[in-house]
Amino acid sequence: MTDTTPPPAPAFRLGYVPGVTAAKWVAVWHERLDVPLDLVTLDAADAARAIRAGEVDAAFVRQPLDRTDLSLIQMYVEQPVVVVAKDHVVTAADAVTCADLDDEVLLDPRDVVLTWEGPQPGRPARERPATTAGAIELAAAGIGVVVVPQSLARLHQRKDVTYRPLTDAPTSPVGLAWREGDPSDLVEEMIGIVRGRTANSSRGRRAAEEAAEASAKAVAAAKAAKAEKAARKPGPDPRAAASRKGGPRRPTTAKAAHRHRRGGR
Q1: Between vectors from CA 91 to CA 90 and to CA 96, what angle results, nearest 5°?
Q2: Model confidence pLDDT, tens digit, residues 97-150
Q3: Nearest-angstrom CA–CA distance, 78 and 61
Q4: Model-level pTM?
Q5: Of the candidates 126, 137, 24, 25, which has an alpha carbon nearest to the alpha carbon of residue 83?
Q6: Please, what are the domains in the chain?
């Protein structure tokens, strides 16, 4: 027996870099669409390549970003913080500046994308840590300090470290990126969700209008079919109509027919 069950719809692959919380957008996606969504974690430094290669359909990324062959809309901007050991001297202040870090070793992880317009604060480490988690572990040991977007400091929070706002460090813009050109309907849906488009606006409204039009066509077709059926139905029997009006009745038995021929005698 042939299986006629249609194959499941392909999932929409949404990438995101560490620290970016995608839960809000994913929740709205599931409220509006029956299409499954797969979340794919991307390294910030590799996100652009992954999008161009088609490994994901779209992704939440940090800027700056190599936007070659990519389109992007900005969503929000994250403030930078400096992560230090729990007992570090800078914890005495509510916020610090880059000048406050002049005597510190800067642990600059390779997986964080920050663009410094001028020299980085402090002194560079002999070797850049490969990951933010590794850099923060070194900061906890008192080896240096780490400058990252605030969401990454929260993501890698430990009992032996804390962080303070760094007021004059570069910010970290976060946006949604996808391959340049004609995006698919699902990419358009995600763009609309991120932009705050409601289910009743733009594409959502057009879908509702199309559904209403289809419903109206179905009602019209049903009425036409009913009218055609009524036109094919035979009319009333004129003899039955004459009988109902009191006209002469035909005899229904042989005896009655004999009396009828003899003039009713």
Answers
A1: 50
A2: 999 999 999 999 998 888 888 889 999 999 999 999 999 999 999 999 999 999
A3: 12
A4: 0.69
A5: 137
A6: 12-77+173-208 (3.40.190.10), 80-170 (3.40.190.10)
